[in-house]
Every structure is written in C-alpha cells, then in structure tokens.
C-alpha cells in the first residue's frame, strides 16, 4: 500500500471511462462513440464535463478504446484551449470548463474491459493523488465535491480507505434498478464501510443471498463499527457511475489481471482478500433538496466514525447504461431531478427551450401544426417540424427533425436530422442521426436504428429489432464489429434489404439475439458468458412496456401554477351559452375504458356473518389510521411521492381493503394541505404530490374525480379550489380528458362519493351541484377541442378525396 500524504491543495484529477464494453446500444455505437450519444439532445460528454466542473475538477483524462478520432475531433472543436497543455483556462469555450484547466485523451485501443483500461492508466503514470473515476454515461447533479471532501477526511484518519463508491437509493419497482443487473451492498451502518458486495443477475437465478458468517460475529462487527454485530443489507441502491479512488487503485488492477469489472471483480476482490488491508466505503446520496427516495437516514450520523451529516453529497446521478436506463434518465431530466440542468432553466451547452406546461418543451424555431398533439413529458429540438395530426407522447425529438402527418410516436427518442413519413407508429425506439423512416412504418419497443439508415415504406419491425449499415455476424462480438466498422469507408453503402426493410430501405436488419433457455449441450459454453451481458439478462435492459408506470420520476414536477381564484371562464368565453343539462353530457353511460364508481359493498359482502363484518370494519379502521400516519410521516420528512404510494399499496394489501379506500385517504390527505389563500404554496404542493394523486387515480380516474369533488363540497374552505384543481389535474395529465367527460356523464358527479351523516350530506348536496356547474368550462373546452379535431380531419379527408 502506498502511504503518501494527501494534500488538499493537490489539483483534483478525474478519469472518465468513455467505453463500457457492452452491446446494449449496438448498432448505434458502431458508428459513433458512446460518450457522444445525446441525452435530451445533449451529448453525454457535455453532461460529464458539467458534472466534473461543478465538482471542482481541474484535470481530466478521457480513456477511450473506440472512435478515438471522433472524440479527439469533438474535443478540439468544443474545447480547443483545454486540449493544449499550456492552457490554464478555456477562453472562448463553454462556461462549464471554468474550473477545468486541462483535458487529455488517452487512447487504449487494446482494452476490452474496465480492468484493462485501469491497467493502461497505471502504465501512463499520470495520476498524482486521489482522483475521481467516472463513467461517461453518468448523468445528474450529485454534489461530488462533498463526497471527495469526506473521502479525503477518511484518508487522513485511515490510509487503508482506498475507495468511496457513490450510490443512490431508488424505489423497489423502479426501472432505474434493472432486474438483470442488481446489487446488494452489506454496510456497517455507523461508518458506512462496505463489508460485502453481491451481484444479483436475473439469470442464473439466485434463490438465496450468501454472506460470510464473520460479518455477524460480535468481535468482528465491533472492530469495524464500535458496536455489536450490526450490519445493513441494502438492495435498494444503484451505482451512480462515480467513485472516488485513492492513488493506490490503478496499481491494484495492475497487480491482479483477474480484475476486469469494477464492482464484480475489483470491489469483490478487495473485500474478500486475506492479504490486503484496503477498505472501501459507500456513499448513499440523499436526493437533492432533501427529498428522500428512501425511508430513514443512509447511516447513523451520530455514531463514532461517521463523516458529515446525512445531507452531504446530496443529489441525483444515474447511468444511461441501457435502453431502459436511457429512457429513465431522459425522463428524470425533464421532470427536474437534475436541477438546475433542466430544459426549463438550461441544459449543458444547449440552446434554450420554451415551456408549454405539463413538461412539454419546445426548442428555438420548432413548429407544430394546430392539429398536432404534444403530450406529457416531451422535448422537441430546435428547427423541428410536426405536421398535421402528429401525436407524440413521452418523447425526445432532436433538432431539424421532420415528422409526417398522422404519425404517432410514444416513448421514443429521435436524434438530430431524422425524417419520419406519414401514418407511422413508433413505440419505445431509438433512431440515430439522419435516419429516414418512410410512410406507413411500424416500429415496436426496443428497436434501435443506427445513423443514416432508411426503413420503409410499409414495414413492420418486431420488438427488439436492430438496423445498421453494417452486417452482423453471429460469431463476432462488439469489439470485432467496431473494428470492422472502422475499416469500412464512409462512401461504401451496403445493399438494401428490400424484403426486411422495405423497397426504399438501406441497411441490414440484424438477427435477434437468442434469449431462450440454453440446452444442456450448451452449458459448457454458458459458463464462459458474462453473467450480466448474457442474452437472458441483456433483454431486460430494453425499454419495457410498463416503463412509464414505474420510472424514477415526477417528484420535482416543473408544471404550470394554478390560481385558486380563477374564474370558470378561464378556458372559454363566459358569454357562451351554458351547457344544457339535458344534453348528451348528462348521459349516465360511462365512457369505455373507465370503471364506473360503485357505492355498494363488493360482491359477497352481504353474505358476511356479523363477526366477518366486524373484522372487515376493524381492518378498514386500522388501515385508515396507518395510512394517514404513513402519509403524515412522508409529508414531514419530505419523502418522494412515489415511495409514499408504494407504502400505501403495501398497507392496502396487508389490510385487504379495496383500492377506493387508498384513493379516499390519499386525496383527502393532499387536499387537506391545500390552502386556497396561499396560491403559490398550493401549486408547489400539488407539483410535489401530483405523482401520488396520479398513482392512486390510475385504475379509476372517474372515482378519483368524484372523491375530489366530494371533499371540496364537504369542506367549505375548499369549494373555490375545485375548479383550479380540476384544471391542474387535466393540464398535468393526472387524469385524462376522457375521464373528465366520463365523470361528468356519470351519476357520481351529482352526489357524494362516500357516506357521511345525513346532516352533512344534506348540506353538501347543493354544493355538489354547484361544483359540477363550475366544471362546465373545462368540459366545454374538451368537447370543442375534440369537435375541432374531427372537423379538420373530415376536411382533410375530403380534400384528399378531391
């Protein structure tokens, strides 16, 4: 072990790993460096530079295996002064380089793993002190400088503290924690020392977690923490892609060529070594603004040996390591987790966006037809055009993109200069730069189309399809493919595969990767496969059909404010005639797809015995008490709304109460904290707790609206809140416009949604009627919007026929 003194005045160095040696984004990465892939229209390298500058890094080493020429050209164009050894500041470059004084690109063409890269780093002998190790696909606002300070403080006390791993807690069902690549960290809670690390792939399935017995022996645990045998076993953490390393770390890779991966081999090897006295510590990042994504404190801040307070090193940092994680990171940027780096304020080295409410952002010069619909959480790049009846939701659209009429795009990512024809359906896919999609093309989830390819017309690509200008050969891995791609000249165009990609197609449709179970004869070959990159695991990193329901997002909603005193004519001119109460709006027929509210007991309830009924009532009473206490605790400790929703679901299943009880408790809890006289505070509160309302309303939005109406009627101080609340849940897409119309037509909009005593019910009856009347402008607006769309569609059809 080296025992050099650590000097804080030493310039902070950073090592950036540009390659991750996986095929998760292939074939896009055959033609461009992974570190230059755009996330929210900003290259990953720009996110990296922003993070490093904010951390106070002065010298950066970029280690790259492939596409070295492209990376060097980008750096020389973007940061010409920083690439020169004599420069001290980047005059004329982006302001993110204000603290960075020097950039050095180190080519490691022979590296085929992180371990190989670290051994090359050691051979160059450029690291002078403790340094920051970062994956180029890590994106966020983590306060790394505070973690570096804590690491240095540890090193002063204990020279064996060689590494601090940065992690972030996430919800159990979050797609930020992919099923195929999960970790279990065993930590000494009083010191945050990492005691053991387990990799948990989906295949081969691990039915039990093996931990060394000595972790639970009193003498061993007391020697670590000064306490008894106390350890925390955490499976709610994801690696942020950032670590603070001592100068001893690169030589350790050189001494042991078995170290290939960072966590799986190096960290596990250090922790299980009988010869080394090295220690590794874990930083669990409290989310920025003290909004916790996990219950409790990361570790006991009052115990001896603890460094800093629970709030130090706060923030968000997540790796865009696969398609699913790429989507999660993109959505979290739009919802504000990376504040202040958001489209509403500014993105690193990017143009300005205008905010259209409901997390919709429009770049400079971008245009869209009046009949086009830009849905929730969408980013449209500069100079892009959306033509008639285009429908985009949860999408990131690059610059200069053209989308043809009647095309629908959902949960997709279109990079710069993409052209999409008419009548296309794109779902959960990534289209590289300058891709052309001709008319009537359907792309299913998980599809990746590399730059400059052409698909169509009249083509349907199945889930998980890959299209590239380069042919795929099953016997070669990504390393060889990229080498082959580099050898091909830029003007060499592969022959089109008309059958697979359409008459106008250009490129090759790759054969899907095998994901089924291996035969017994393949077991020997299976032993040589990487556990995580095994096809049975790799398929789990693609975009999932239920991703939108479980992503780590929405806590910081940057949505439009509401005004509690807004008048009913805010959406429509009040001079228009009142909606006729005897019209079609009053039909009791429920819109298809939305469950109707039921005020009767569930099937079979009437046949319950007295004891069963009493038991049910006790469970219900107990649930309401525990749910209210849980929400109070979440509110006081400023937990994330997603975590509060998960805890409510757990309580509901334990108490065996219907989902309607969860809706009633959650909605009443949120509305009770809304002050009509405090408009700004109420708006902020609904922004923060909107995800909870969306979650509990999801399976019956009609009933949720009825509960909101009933609560407002029973609490006179909230009657003025109902209309702006209705606008808020409509604008923020907490409920759909179809659900609002269904609620209006349903009898539940004319009576209380739950039972109260006769006196209160009688007093609330006329208020229910009045609140329904106040909702008329919103209903009228929805109806006129639908009629306008239908008329324009009919006009367009007639013009086409002529």
From TrEMBL:
Bias kind Acidic residues: ranges: 517-532, 564-585, 787-802
Pfam families (UniProt xref): LbH_EIF2B, W2
InterPro entries, A to Z: ARM-type_fold, eIF-2B_epsilon_N, eIF2B_epsilon, LbH_EIF2B3/5, Nucleotide-diphossugar_trans, Trimer_LpxA-like_sf, W2_domain, W2_eIF2B_epsilon
Location relative to the cell: Cytoplasm, Cytosol
Keyword Cytoplasm: yes
Biased composition, class Polar residues, residue ranges: 599-610
PROSITE patterns: W2
Amino acid composition bias (Low complexity), ranges on this chain: 586-598
Keywords attached to this entry: Cytoplasm, Initiation factor, Protein biosynthesis
GO MF assignments: guanyl-nucleotide exchange factor activity; translation initiation factor activity; translation initiation factor binding
Region (Disordered), start-end ranges: 486-537, 558-611, 782-802
W2 domain segment(s): 617-793
Family: Belongs to the eIF-2B gamma/epsilon subunits family.
Assembly description: Component of the translation initiation factor 2B (eIF2B) complex which is a heterodecamer of two sets of five different subunits: alpha, beta, gamma, delta and epsilon. Subunits alpha, beta and delta comprise a regulatory subcomplex and subunits epsilon and gamma comprise a catalytic subcomplex. Within the complex, the hexameric regulatory complex resides at the center, with the two heterodimeric catalytic subcomplexes bound on opposite sides.
UniProt-recorded name of the protein: Translation initiation factor eIF2B subunit epsilon
Organism of origin: Malassezia yamatoensis
Gene: GCD6
